[in-house]
Amino acid sequence: MSPTANSAFSTIDPPFVSRPPRRLPEPTRLLVGDDWAAWREPVMQRLEDLVQVPQSDASARPVRLEVAHFTLQMLKSICPPDTAPPHIAAGSAGDLQVEWRTPSTKIELHVMAPNSVSAWRQTPSLANGEEANLTNDFLIVLRWVREMLDSGTPDFGTMPTRIFPAATLPAETLSILDRLAYSVDQSVVDHEFLEKARAAKDQAVSLVRRNRLTGSPRVMMSDDGVLTLQWRNGVNGGAALIFQGDGTVSFAVKNAHQMYSDSGLDDAPLDAPLPEEFRAALKAIVA
Amino acid sequence: MSANNLPEFESPPLNEVVMGIQFQPVPAYQQILSLEVWQLFRDQFPVVQEQPPLGAQFETFGLPSAPQIFPINFFSGASHDRFWFLSELGNNLIQFQPDRLLHNWRKVEVEGEEYPRFESILTQFKAEMQALEAYFVRLGSGRLNVTQCELSYLNQISMPDWEPFRPQEWFSFVAPDEPPIDEFSCTAKRILRDEEGRPYGRLYRESVTGADRKGAKVLTLNLTARGRPGTDTIDGTLDFLANTRHMIADEFIRSTTPAAHKRWKRVR
Questions:
Q1: Looking at chain B, which terminus has fewer C-beta neighbours within 10 angstroms, N or C?
Q2: Does residue B197 belong to the interface with chain A, where contact is any CB pair within 8 Å?
Q3: Which DSSP helix (H) or strand (E) runs through A51?
């Protein structure tokens, strides 16, 4: 008797496993159906390598096991059998980036934690790309992958795989994104503002990712769901981004001549270019 | 179906109930501290056993989920056992590993020991989650960050012998004119959606023939709800468990026959 939905029943006696095999045993079967997936073996090998091998940056955290498990489960939900294996890279905070690049399409998935994924794609008809912040529903990414497969791009399809290794986001950007992933502390934010807080977090992720912001900002979420990223430079310098979760962002800069409240631009559209004053202040701080 | 009109039986086939959470491992916790975790529960759970760890499970949505024939585990070097903390009677147990906490109630053949009811198990599980969270906070880590919740009811129907049998006597999802069979296996999954239609979990219904611990033939009906809680906190977990408990009760009634209800002495 072996219920598959729940392995936690106490009446089930699982076989003792001292150390699981590196490769999955292949079941004996006579029929080869559509469930054999070309991507699975190289992906599993890659994930296993990433959770075992220390990163080149000694200060970086190893890929977290739960992130590897979640990534594999996510890929099962979005990869039809003919999908080529994606390029998978470790982030600096135990996170993972999953990417496909073909001559016409880029799909990037940043798995920050279980149930916290930032997805982005670019196609010829979407020059600026489109993005989505996802939890465990990946139907939109399944559609992206299927469109990529249907586009019949040379070098992409059943097995072959000229996948260009993608340039990953800067380590500091990933670090900010990782902190943002945990910014909505549901035990701190008042329940009525949770949706607003989640929207603020998602919008911050989009802006940080698109602008590849670096440095080490403080990430602060208020109990009413307002998210602030603050870069500081001693006591007199600083730059801040404020997200209300309403699709806008406010910028503020502090220096020897002005306070945060005296400067900045309020309620700018998220996709607007960063104001020059903010950009210069941030550059000075990060430098 | 409200809490007051949940079905009730004098002689239900219920054999085991499991409620549990999967959470993000706490960096400050190491296996050597497992004794301290046991101390949290030792008064009521004085017996300890070691078991192989459970693999991580996540409900995600996109392509239909395929059955996982072999459990997949990535190893990063150090591994961690799963501990069973058992009550003296063995009818209640806590399962703990760095990313899991589960509470099982299971039927034991002891005079006067009856199913303690969902509310009672839930109250106990809530206290256990709170105790573990407080311990992690004392270690210097944050609160429990819950990634998945699950609730399972395992029903066992005793078969009189090893002769062919008719599962449609018990299950309404089997055609009435099916001839008798020797063995049975059937799985169905339903996606659980929130008020806005967004998927967050699955309800599994699995039935299979097997043998109990004494070798007698049994037919099982295992109902499991698993998914992401609305909020990743203990409160979110409690909401998930309370809601899916009603779904499981509803599924149990829908998938079993009136004749079976009569044999189990349905009173409500």
A1: C
A2: no
A3: helix A40-52
Taking the CA of residue A78 and the nearest CA in chain B, the distance in Å comes to: 6
Looking at residue B185, what is its pLDDT? 95
Chain A nearest CA to B223, separation (Å):
9
Q: Which of A4, A69, A136 is nearest residue B59 as measured by Cβ atoms? A: A136
Q: Which of B102, B103, B104, B99 is nearest to B57 (CA)?
A: B99
ipTM of the complex: 0.82
Q: Which of A144, A166, A188 is the last residue of a domain?
A: A166
Do A156 and A220 have their domain in common?
no
Query: Inter-chain contact B16–A11, Cβ cutoff 8 Å?
Result: yes
Model confidence at B251, in pLDDT bands (50, 70, 90)?
very high
**Looking at beta carbons, which residues of chain A come within 8 Å of B231?**
186, 191, 194
Rounded Cα gap, residues A131 and A109, in angstroms: 10
For residue A50, being part of any structural domain is answered with yes
**Is A133 inside a domain boundary?**
yes
Q: Are residues A53 and A154 in the same domain?
A: yes
Task: Give the structural domain span for A81.
Answer: 40-166
Of B153, B168, B174, the residue nearest B249 (C-alpha): B153
**What confidence tier does A21 reach under pLDDT thresholds 50, 70, 90?**
very low
Q: Which of A137, A166, A195 is the last residue of a domain?
A: A166
Q: How many domains does chain A have?
A: 2
3-state secondary structure of A238: strand
- CB B226 to CB A6 under 8 A? yes
Indicate yes or no: CB of A5 within 8 angstroms of CB of B18: no
Assess if residue A235 is contained within a domain: yes
pLDDT band per the 50, 70, 90 thresholds, residue A160? very low
Is residue A162 located within the same domain as residue A248?
A: no
Q: Taking CB atoms and an 8 Å cutoff, what residues of chain B touch A7?
A: 54-55, 71
Q: Mutation test of the interface with chain A: which of B61, B150, B231, choosing the one with the most A Cβ atoms within 10 A?
A: B61
Of A8, A19, A70, the CB nearest to B20: A8
The reply to whether A5 falls in a domain is: no
Cβ-defined contact of B65 to A6 (cutoff 8 Å): no
How far apart CA A106 and CA A83 sit, in angstroms, is: 14
> In this complex, do B61 and A65 lie within 8 Å of one another by their Cβ atoms?
no
Give the pLDDT score at A198.
Answer: 85
Q: Which two tokens stand for residue B243?
A: 């809601």
Clarify whether residues A188 and A124 are in a common domain. no
Amino acid at B141: S
Quick one: pLDDT band at residue B187, thresholds 50, 70, 90? very high
Test A8 with B231 for CB contact under 8 angstroms.
no
**A154 shares a domain with A190:** no
Closest approach of B217 to chain A, Cα-based (Å): 11
pTM over 0.90: no
Q: Tokens in use for A170?
A: 């800067």
Question: N- to C-terminal Cα distance for chain A?
Answer: 62
